[in-house]
Amino acid sequence: MTTGNVLLDVEHLTMRFGGLVAIDDLSFEARRNEITALIGPNGAGKTTVFNCLTGFYKPTVGRLKLNHPAKGDYLLERMDGFRITQKADVARTFQNIRLFPQMSVLENLMVAQHNRLMKASMWTVGGLLNLPSFRQAEKEAIELAKYWLNKVSLYERADWEAGNLPYGDQRRLEICRAMCTRPVLLCLDEPAAGLNPKESLELNELLLGIRDEEKIGILLIEHDMSVVMQISDHVVVLDHGRKISDGTPTEVKNDPAVIRAYLGEDEDEDLPKEVANDLHMPSHAHGTGHDHGGGQG
Amino acid sequence: MATDIASPSASAAAKRPGSYDLPGALKESAITAGVAAVLAFPFLGLQANNDGPELVLLTRWELFFWAVAVVFVGRMLLTVFRWRSDARAKSAEGLKAFGAKFQRYNVWIGLAGAIFAFTLPMWPFADRYVVDIATTFLIYVMLGWGLNIVVGLAGLLDLGYVAFYAVGAYSYALLATMFDWSFWICLPLAGLFAATFGVILGFPVLRLRGDYLAIVTLGFGEIIRVVLINWYDVTNGPDGIGSIPRPTFFGYAFDRSPEEGTMAFHQLLGIDFDSMHRIIFLYFLILILALITNAFTLRVRKLPIGRGWEALREDEIACRSLGMNPTNTKLSAFAIGAMFGGFAGSFFATRQGFISPESFTFIESAIILAIVVLGGMGSQLGVVIAAFVLVIVPEWLREFAEYRMLLFGLAMVLIMVWRPRGLLSHRDPTVRLHPPGYVPRHGVEAQKVQAQEAELAAKAK
To answer: Any idea where the ABC transporter domain is (chain A) (predicted)?
Structure first.
């Protein structure tokens, strides 16, 4: 693990809602030019981590440091929600797609460039006068939008209402919209949810393309293991708000703690050894009747 | 109730286009007649009469039975001729096609409307009354366009818009009577004051949306009115402010005999004095103010701030995730909407020459909001049409004064049934990559698009 290109450094993040501890002393790193996946069973606190990172929640304890390659360090836990995107260039998508459904596909991508265009329009004054500098900025914004539309083959449908697009295209449009904010860290909340296998493959290519061409870090929450295992460089596993494993996909896949979290266990009982072995190497013959019985919670 | 019953018969009729099933139609008519009977009995069947000191109840069975029979036969005829499956579909399609056609020509309709508006005082029928009504109409159009920024674009349901209208009117009246400043200085100041009030209102309601926002803005509107009534030292309370200076044509007054050392408008042009000059001048003044509001809105929609407002209406959380400052964006919508309300208010003050809190009651807010909602939120032409329906038509129907509110309600219900998103609810993108109606012709992409379009069309059916 090199520390040179750490992009996001999460230290001792804790989030409590009243008596409920959603995240408990979580520390991990996400690096530039890497896809970091955040996985875990339902209710493990993955989306809460995202909400803390993008300012929707204020963490109870902890430090979220972003090492922006061009602008220096930002402490995200101290910033207002929208400023995290505006200043620190962290963009996110949502588990349940949040497009602007009645606006066109292109307009969705233009809104993503709101801050840059507002500045170029001199907070509307220059825009009303239609100054050349504003027209130039608008042209550039449309060019950027076109670039991303071509990437996900939505160019032909740029003038459609975003809400009329099929589900898979809406997912990809949301990723494009986040990319149009020109982020250094892209946080994707279950981008493959509801996609068919073909669309899932296309998504993998898109994400790998973003990592390799844009040289940014991607933080990914995902349930679809085919996506996680194929594209992520680094996987962090959460369970009940705690980190239970951290490493490369292969390391994580073989971590007994992870298997236990996913398949369940009795509260105070360790997994019987032979069952753990069973789960590791299903081809081993240990008899078929008893193997999972002890493990199920 | 009747519609629930109607659905099985409608589906039965759908099997054979152009057909209807008689038992179903009879049943529907009977139910409708039953409802009519329940309603008609107290309203038509009974009549309370004064017979000397006593009140006697008369029954009017004949009238009652006639009413029920008319409803029965009417419903029967409607079912047989009008609500056959194909007739129904045809009329719905026709309405949709009409809307789309209207949309396509809306630039031309707008232009024709503007030309007509500019030439209105020259038409032979344009007497004092007509120009006066047209001026009132344009005030509402301008208010509708101003509120459209807040409600139609930014999606902030504002039930207290009349407060800004009042602030504009009182700012103008007070500045003009106290400091003797001219209309052209007071107008921008009044707009500025109204915008300031927009921001003041905006701050506490930033976190609210929808119904909650509507209630708070309603309260704000009432607060302004109550302050105007009670702050006697400044606003002169319920007595209002009188003798507000009239606007001048760049310093040339519309008076028969101007003050010493100044020249009147008719002297400037060397024509005879006519009291119509001022009326027509006021008409053109509000026309230009309204058109400025319109031009501003049309332009600002294509600017980042306008798109920001629309995005905020669609999804505030997504806006925040894109780095947009929702506070500033909302406040700017409130402020700019309020500013145009303030302009309209100062025009109102100078036109009337007298203002009192009575002109700024909740019903005004309701009418302005109704204009925006009926017109189709965000549609500029829709606002004009709705203002026509809500301002000019009641003026024509003055003879039916008692039924005005009834007709008003009926119009509302009909529009909500036929066009729940307003008369002109179609929204054009503010920026395009392809010309309107573009369909990709070749390549894999085109096939994909065509397949999806077919799917959408099937879904729409």
So the answer is: 8-265
